[in-house]
Design a protein that fits this description.
This protein is mostly helical and 92 residues long. It has helices spanning 9-37, 42-71, 87-91.
Length: 92
């Protein structure tokens, strides 16, 4: 599924959640590895990695909560005149 062709907010939320998990693991691992490379003790490096992981997962959860509220509910049509195809669209 392409994210840019999503038809409802649920598709975007699922893609956001999946990519957020991967990004959180990557960030947590890199932070822990960087801490070890600068000679931090293993428990400090692990704590820093876990903290970075938790922050990214929290931001991902915030995005999952926020996206449906910004995009709006499914099937809600805008008020006013219904959409009518123009002459350009009917020629194709």
């Amino acid at each position: 599924m392409k994210v840019d062709s999503a038809t409802n907010p649920g598709d975007l939320v699922h893609a956001w959640t999946a990519s957020g998990r991967v990004f959180a693991v990557t960030v947590g691992s890199l932070v822990a590895l960087t801490s070890l490379m600068v000679n931090a003790p293993i428990h400090i490096a692990s704590f820093r990695g876990a903290l970075a992981f938790a922050v990214v997962r929290g931001l991902t959860a915030l995005g999952c909560w926020l996206v449906p509220r910004v995009v709006g509910p499914e099937g809600l049509e805008p008020e006013g005149e219904p959409f009518v195809e123009g002459a350009e669209a009917s020629k194709q």
